[in-house]
């Protein structure tokens, strides 16, 4: 492994927009070594004044919906508009299959060659809480390095959408037009988190289907209560191949940005997100520390199945474990 | 305060179905005194073999939808069918206004006079995690005392529906027919949790509206993916005044019960719920213990606003607090 940079070297490199230093800083954030974690935490704290100026966009959709191709095309549009773009991914499941670095870079060929785009695959990690925390810190590092649009990509796995929703300003759901069952396969609750829906692959024979799906989705969204921002999520159709509709999606996000800046919702939302992150970090660190204890691990291993079967009450075991942990 | 009963006295009283002992046991479970909590935990553990045989039904709906009247009428129907019924409530918000004991008993006059019905208002508590844990233990005590249908009522506040969903077999959503905006006012995500929807107050002039609303809801439910149980949530219309439709709701729940018993989903679901409860209890006890520390409280009080404003990174503060807590 390369020699660790100093805090100062990390800081000045990032603030200058040095991509190599940025990459190494994200690796630092992702490290599970306690020494790295402390340095990372100090680094994130130090660059904090340079963060927050980007538009943070979450992108989700089931596998096969064309997220990478969309990000490739949409990302290139943003680069043409003079934006600096960082693409992060949060996908705890991808760790199982590995190889996501190569995967992401080949999936987004054009983007990965552009010096104004920075692509970083999903960090390794065995818990969503950990992976999400790392992605969020990576996002802050990218902001400090001057990226003004951050795309955070996620797959519909477990609670990862909620984590992404909690770190972005705008949450975009990609869907496909299908034969009447457009909404099948979308995880419960996802549609209600979206600030905008894009019906992707609206090209060729699909275009007619996509237009139909658009009204289906619009009707469905109508059934949901207004979100706190006062924004009604629009439904757009787009093709990442013909680039049809991509401009409109950027307009959608830009007007959301303008409206929420004006109303103060953007800052209010971010402030609430920070408090949620404090809570989540605390809970994560506490439970992590707890589960690291060999005594706790042994007890859990032997008693868990009794809780599962209903033989031991969850609260009983929880109390026993607490006593064990705090007995000294 | 009355003398505390012994563990044995609690146990035998509950298993005999003694309502006074049951009441006192629930009070014990609700107590925040450490001594009570330990006895309660032991008690719940000891009666565990006698639990689990009931149908656990969650009932939710916005204020004004007529939950109490519905529970009064529906509950009386169940009593007529020879069931023993316990009604519990989980509503963290009700603590602010107090007086829920008197409230609940006057709201459900007929039920509260029947010896086969046991009504218990929402326990006091300042966190949902705590309130939910207490309600769940109360549910187990009621089951051990022979109640074979448990209704857990909740209001759409914060995350309380998720807590209730995680402790019941069947989750029923009550709604009202309105003028075109039937679904307004239902909290995001609630509809997707429901195993059945009842359009309440379907009497008089409302009947026509209710029938219309029924098809609106049916269409909306169609948009959601199939739940893991394979069950498609039906929509019923009912009146708690004329008793119209109540029988059908019981049929709906009974066939859900039969199907999920047969498929094994009921036990699978309960087993998963138990593991969730173990996790939640652990997290609750850990964070509770953490936040009880005067040092942590002082630090949080002075530093929280810096996180809110974005001056201090959430992870930085979380780490500092962890160091403080575990420094000895």
From TrEMBL, chains A, B:
<comment type="similarity">
    <text>Belongs to the SIMIBI class G3E GTPase family. ArgK/MeaB subfamily.</text>
</comment>
<protein>
    <submittedName>
        <fullName>Methylmalonyl-CoA mutase metallochaperone MeaB</fullName>
    </submittedName>
</protein>
<dbReference type="GO" id="GO:0005737">
    <property type="term" value="C:cytoplasm"/>
</dbReference>
<dbReference type="InterPro" id="IPR005129">
    <property type="entry name" value="GTPase_ArgK"/>
</dbReference>
<dbReference type="GO" id="GO:0005525">
    <property type="term" value="F:GTP binding"/>
</dbReference>
<dbReference type="InterPro" id="IPR027417">
    <property type="entry name" value="P-loop_NTPase"/>
</dbReference>
<dbReference type="Pfam" id="PF03308">
    <property type="entry name" value="MeaB"/>
</dbReference>
<dbReference type="InterPro" id="IPR003593">
    <property type="entry name" value="AAA+_ATPase"/>
</dbReference>
<dbReference type="GO" id="GO:0003924">
    <property type="term" value="F:GTPase activity"/>
</dbReference>
<feature type="domain" description="AAA+ ATPase">
    <location>
        <begin position="53"/>
        <end position="204"/>
    </location>
</feature>
């Amino acid at each position: 492994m390369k020699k660790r940079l100093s805090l100062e070297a990390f800081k000045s490199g990032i603030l200058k927009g040095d991509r190599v230093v940025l990459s190494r800083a994200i690796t630092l954030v992702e490290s599970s070594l306690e020494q790295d974690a402390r340095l990372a935490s100090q680094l994130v704290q130090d660059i904090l004044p340079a963060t927050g100026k980007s538009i943070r966009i979450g992108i989700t959709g089931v596998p096969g919906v064309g997220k990478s191709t969309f990000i490739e095309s949409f990302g290139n549009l943003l680069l043409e508009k003079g934006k600096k773009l960082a693409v992060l991914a949060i996908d705890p499941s991808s760790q199982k299959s590995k190889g996501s670095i190569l995967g992401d870079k080949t999936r987004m060929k054009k983007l990965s060659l552009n010096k104004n785009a920075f692509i970083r695959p999903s960090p390794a990690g065995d818990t969503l809480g950990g992976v999400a925390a790392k992605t969020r810190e990576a996002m802050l590092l990218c902001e400090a390095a001057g990226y003004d649009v951050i795309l955070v990509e996620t797959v519909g796995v477990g609670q990862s959408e909620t984590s992404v929703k909690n770190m972005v300003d705008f949450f975009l759901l990609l869907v496909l037009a299908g034969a009447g069952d457009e909404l099948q396969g979308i995880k419960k609750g996802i549609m209600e988190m979206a600030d905008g829906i894009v019906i992707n692959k609206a090209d060729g024979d699909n275009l007619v289907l996509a237009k139909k799906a658009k009204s289906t989705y619009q009707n469905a969204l109508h059934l949901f209560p207004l979100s706190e921002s006062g924004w009604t999520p629009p439904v757009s159709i787009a093709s990442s191949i013909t680039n049809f509709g991509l401009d409109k999606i950027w307009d959608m996000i830009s007007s959301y940005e303008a409206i929420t800046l004006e109303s103060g919702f953007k800052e209010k939302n971010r402030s609430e997100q920070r408090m949620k992150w404090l809570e989540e970090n605390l809970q994560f660190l506490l439970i992590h520390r707890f589960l690291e204890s060999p005594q706790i691990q042994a007890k859990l291993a032997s008693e868990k199945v009794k809780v599962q079967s209903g033989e031991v009450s969850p609260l009983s075991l929880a109390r026993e474990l607490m006593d064990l942990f705090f007995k000294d």
